[in-house]
Amino acid sequence: MSILNVNKINPVGGGSTITIAGIASVTSSVTAPSFVGAVTGNVTGNVTGNVTGDATGLSGNPSINTTGIITATTLNYTGNQNLSHRNILINGDFRVAQRGTSSTSSGIHSVDRFGVWHDNTDEAPTQAQVDVASGTTPYTLGFRKALKVTNGNQTSGAGVGDYIWIQNNLEAQDIANSGWNYTSSSSFITLQFWVKSSVAQDFKCYLRSRDGSQMMYPFNTGTLTADTWTKVTKTIPGNSGLTFDNDVNQGFQINIGCFFGDNLTSAATNENAWTAWNSSMRTKVFTPTWYTTNDATFEITGVQLEVGPVATPFEHRSYGDELMRCMRYYETNNHTTYAKNTDGSITSYWSTITSNDSNTLVVSTGIVYKVGKRASPSVTLYNSANTGTANRVNAQGTERTVTATYGGPNALTRIYVSGASSGNYVTYNWEAVSEL
Amino acid sequence: MTTYKLIKDPVFNNVTSVLKDSSYHVPFDPDNTDYQEYLEWAKTNTADPAD
């Protein structure tokens, strides 16, 4: 091998180009105002000039990580992460609360699509739609509402059968058709949410598939700092044992625990892995501090489930869009939080009783749901003058019992009442429930 | 404790739903979760008859 040691090579005749044919490698830095030809190694300095050739090295599987802005005339997107409708969940920012803003009942009784389930408590917790405080990080990201659970006073301590948890149910078809290749361990979904607790501890959670041989995916939030919003992100792979039918029934659950008693947990539970569903091993053993703290609080907002291995920014949708999505599962003419008249009243339905051949008192309601329901809903009516008792109407000023209803997923066409008279006017409010 | 009463459609005179807790009319739709719960309950219990 010959070695040429020189300090400077000048182009012949005052030109500007030097060509070195057949060079194999340069083991140190090369500095020049421009390069012609391929760059096969790393570029560690700034590129301030134009790159007019193809950047073929980006056609493999490189990641581009930048905090700057990428500008392109055309984006030929070939990934499997949805660009719109990324959030599979409905009401993940908790803006819709058709039933009301606060309740101590177990189930879905405040914000739409998310239930707070509890049992065996000494004092029932309260679920509520609350404001996100201005100045906090979720607020600055556009979140104005959260779901808040306020613990009761659990005077007998943390019983083995006690629980309080937040649950969201998804239709199986919405997972089957999401684009997630859920039987492949190299295909992912990503869950994210903001969470805040008044007690510093970690909280246990799990996902659950509902079709075929059910499976669960336990995980935890990590230890939260008291009264501090924390973003939790979990990227979840597929598994060959997962099954999601292409139907309207329960297919997938997200369960976020405030507390699970020992009957539901186990030290042997494997976190961050899919395993066969086991009701008594839903999560690892739960730290009971939050549960045994009177009036402890737990808040979440910004819940998003999306296909792909990355948590993208929360998909903020309009209130109207989100309300319509919620109505697939619940609808009422008595929308307690938004749809009141300017005087604060609600518009009750007004119909007239007729009588058919068998002398049954029939009310043709004319109720066509704004959104077709997931399934034929359970229906109840309330006397417009007394909303405290279900299955009643106001017939010419007298409360009457509804003896039967008739309808389907798209309409409540008629109801039957007892004790009134043909020709009576009837006023009532109604709700139709088709939750998962 | 949850209660159920069978409801007969007055026009067609056939049982088409069940009244849950004297409040909700639950149609016999296999995808309705209240009906699914009723079917589980009915495996060991009997609903009140229709009027």
The amount of helix of chain A comes to under 10%
Low-confidence stretches of chain A: none
Count all strands of chain B and give the number.
3
Strand order of the largest sheet of chain A: 1-3-4-12-6-9
Order of helices and strands of chain A: EEEHEEHEEEEEEEHEEEEEEEEE
Q: What do the pLDDT scores of chain B average to? A: 95
What does the model show?
The complex is a heterodimer of chains A (436) and B (51). With 436 residues, chain A is mainly beta. In chain A, the strands form 3 sheets. In chain A, strands 1-3-4-12-6-9 form a 6-stranded antiparallel beta sheet, with no helix packed on it. Chain A has a 6-stranded antiparallel beta sheet with strand order 2-5-10-7-8-11. A 6-stranded antiparallel barrel of chain A has the order 14-15-20-19-18-21. In chain A, a hairpin with a 5-residue loop joins strand 14 and strand 15. The mean pLDDT of chain A is 90. Chain B has 51 residues and is an alpha+beta fold. Helices cover 20% and strands 29% of the residues of chain B. Chain B contains 1 helix and 3 strands, in the order E-E-E-H. In chain B, strands 1-2-3 form a 3-stranded antiparallel beta sheet, covered by helices on one side. Chains A and B meet through strand 16 and strand 19 of A and strand 2 and strand 3 of B.
